């Protein structure tokens, strides 16, 4: 029943820019480094060319560890209309696995009782993509955004308990969507198997 306020993203979040890890320190196992190429449309993806660093380097760069419910935003990528690789695309970290944030990424979280999930779901709106399109620079192959411009994006803020309820509601919808997608994939695989084997 209370009025919602509009606030700049930079006013309600804290951030850390990713670190430029050196290629000479890359290992085949250890603590994974998350690069722009490791982000899908809405999550961190698993791939065969993952890179890692040692425990020692991970401890030295502890502030770059990615924590649950932090939002990661790409500061380089393709033009905003190319969703899968777009500059400025946000993902939210579902699990804290000790990953480290590489350069060209920024991690943010809500400050002063601002719920990160509530903020994240507002960054999925078309209005956000349209805003990114107005601040991006570069060409179709390599666009970038300045963090100072990103912080001027306006989001809505309400009371903390309402933020939590809304964030939790959308998170549950995501969970159900993923669950049904997995069931759908299994049914598609079953159908394919049956079609290949039933009429021979």
Q: Can you tell me about this structure?
A:
This protein has 200 residues and is of the alpha+beta class. It has helices at 9-12, 55-60, 116-122, 126-135, 147-150, 160-198; strands at 5-8, 13-17, 31-34, 51-53, 71-74, 76-77, 90-92, 100-101, 105-110, 137-138, 143-144, 154-157. It has one domain (5-158): Alpha-Beta Complex (Adenine-n6-DNA-methyltransferase TaqI, Chain A, domain 2). The protein is 35% helix and 20% strand.
Question: What is the topological layout?
Answer:
Elements: E1 5-8, H1 9-12, E2 13-17, E3 31-34, E4 51-53, H2 55-60, E5 71-74, E6 76-77, E7 90-92, E8 100-101, E9 105-110, H3 116-122, H4 126-135, E10 137-138, E11 143-144, H5 147-150, E12 154-157, H6 160-198
Parallel strand pairs: 3-8
Antiparallel strand pairs: 1-12, 2-9, 3-4, 5-7, 5-9, 6-11, 10-11
Features:
single chain, 200 residues, alpha+beta, Adenine-n6-DNA-methyltransferase TaqI, Chain A, domain 2, 6 helices, 12 strands
Termini gap:
64 Å
State the secondary-structure class.
Answer: alpha+beta
| Oligomeric composition of the shown chains | single chain
What is the CATH third-level topology name?
A: Adenine-n6-DNA-methyltransferase TaqI, Chain A, domain 2
Tally the structural domains. 1
Biggest β-sheet description: 4 strands, antiparallel
Strand proportion: 15-25%
CATH superfamily: DNA methylase specificity domains
Q: Return Rg in Å.
A: 19 Å
What is the number of helices? 6
Say how many strands there are.
Answer: 12
| CATH first level | Alpha Beta
* Helix/strand order: EHEEEHEEEEEHHEEHEH
Query: Largest sheet, order of strands side by side?
Result: 2-9-5-7
> Which term fits the overall shape?
globular
Q: What is the second-level CATH architecture?
A: Alpha-Beta Complex
Helix coverage percent: 25-40%
Average pLDDT, rounded to a whole number, is 91
